Task: structure prediction
Amino acid sequence: MKKMATALEQSGYVVINQPYPSTRHPIETLADTAIGQALSRCPDGGRIHFVTHSMGGILVRQYLSRQRISGLGRVVMLGPPNQGSQVVDTLGKMVGFKLVNGPAGLQLGTSETSVPNRLGPANFDVGIIAGTRSINLILSTMLPKPNDGKVSVANTRLDGMADHLSLPVTHPFMMNNAEVITQTRHFLRHGMFDRTGK
Result:
């Protein structure tokens, strides 16, 4: 997220680029720890926005399902598995999946009991950017089209979202794409994506 962070700093935002050990803990623990640490580093008194990639969007949803954030602004999610991913459904029971993806990875399936599907609709201002290109041709075969190689466009959607945009970007690199960065900044400012050039 370094390129995204730099672009947002250049736009006048104070950016906290919060890492988290995504393969070591379940989503509930990661959300409390990562979001809590990020919030503790934010300046007092300002609006607090989130820009997330993939599982990061689920961490924000998990955190907000339990706690209120004073001064919460807008959220932009990039490639979030908001309804889970069929990749987890297909590969989750294979030996080695948990070792590589951790306990949180196993929580991202599409069943009704998966964490994303238990969290309910958004009750905050969120815009979602989905990717339609893949560099992982094997994983793409496990997903409905269009997809970004990890999540289908359909499964990025979330009831209650303010806006949704599909762009020809891949899951692992979408945060570095110039159009994604431009659209992220636009949503943070205006609460909608920019379609004037479409």
Summary: Residues 2-190 form a domain with the Rossmann fold fold (CATH 3.40.50.1820).
